[in-house]
Amino acid sequence: MAKTNPWAQIKEKASAIVPPVTVLREQAQLLSEATNAVIQGTVIVESSGGDTVTHKLRAYVPALDNYSVDLLTVQHSMLIYPCSLWCSFDDRRKWVECENKDQLEAAVQFALELDAVQKVVVSLMSQATQ
Questions:
Q1: Distance between CA atoms of 33 and 104, rounded to whole angstroms?
Q2: Are 62 and 47 in contact (CB under 8 A)?
Q3: pLDDT confidence bin for 1, thresholds 50/70/90
């Protein structure tokens, strides 16, 4: 009986998945570009040591003594999706469940367009450039 390689298509399968950390890194880069790096978007990855991974989209402002504020938090298991999104400035104060990348991207877009998030970023930009 011929042996088969159970890992033969693992790279192809993995490359078809866009993980939440990639979605947040794209937003971090867009924030940095939009502010000419006055505000630097960064993504922090934390692990609880268990099954949960946490990613935080952080606005980092070197000109304000390295002040930083977390804008979004995403949590997921090792299976990546579904994941949960938390916006630090959303008055609803609830986790938004996202079943896939498309739902996550829509939820991230909604959260980052909230007036409260926009006001925080505008305020940081104003303070950093004065």
A1: 22
A2: no
A3: low
